[in-house]
Specification:
GO terms for molecular function: hydrolase activity. Helix content is 28%, strand content 23%. With 235 residues, the protein is an alpha/beta fold. It has a single domain, classed as Ribonuclease Z/Hydroxyacylglutathione hydrolase-like (Metallo-beta-lactamase, Chain A, 4-Layer Sandwich), CATH 3.60.15.10. 43% of the residues are buried.
Amino acid sequence: MAEFVHVAGRVWVCVGDPDPEFVQAGVALVADERGSVLVDAGQSPSHAREIQAALAAAGLPAPRWLVYTHHHWDHVWGACAWPDVEIVGHATGAELLRAEAARPWSIPYLRAEVLRNRRLGPSFRARALAVDSWDELTVLPPTRVFTDELELPTGVVVRHVGGRHAPDSTVVVVPDSGVMLLGDSWYPPPAHLRTPEDAPDLALVARLLDDDIGWYVSSHSPPMTLAAARAAVAG
C-alpha cells in the first residue's frame, strides 16, 4: 500500500515496491500550499492513483508541477493520470519521450519486442504487470523543458546531471529543506544495456555532495544522510 513518509522540511517520499520484478520507482512530493511539486509520476496510471490516495490520506497538497527525473517508463508512465499539472523535464528526455509516445504499447507489441531482443524481457514483463488497461496509457513528454537548470516558483531547483543511466538524468534540490532527490542518476545503465563492467557512478554522487544538503534520496533506495552518502562514496 502506497504511503508518504516525511524526510525533512517540505519533502515527503512514497517509496516504490522493493520487489525488482515490478520495477516500481518511488516518488517524492515537495509540499507547498501554493502548489506542490511532484517528483516523478509513478510507473502506470494505476500506480499514480495509489499515490493520489496516499497524498489524500497524508493530507498533503495536490501537485501543480510534475518533474521527471528522466524518461524511463517506471518514472513517467503514470503522468497521464495526474490532472492539471505542468510537466517539467529535460530537453533530451522530451525528444526521447516523443518517440516513446509513438510506439504501439500493448501486450502483442511487448511480446514482439522481447522476441526481437531477449534482454528486454525483465523490463517488458514488468510493464505488462504494471498496466491494467492499455487504453488508458498515454506517454506524455514534458510540457516545459529546460537544458541546464530551472528554478520553480516554490524555490525548487531542477538540475541536469546526465550520467550513464540516462542522458536526461536530473536531480531536484530543495534548499530550504536540505534535500536532494537523485532519481536514478547514479545507477548503472538499464539492464538491457548493461555490461559486466558497469557499476554505480559514485563519482557522480561525489560531485553532488554538499554541506548544505543533509538528505539524499534515490528512486529505488532508502534516503541517505549526508554522512552515509559520504561513507558510501568513500567505499
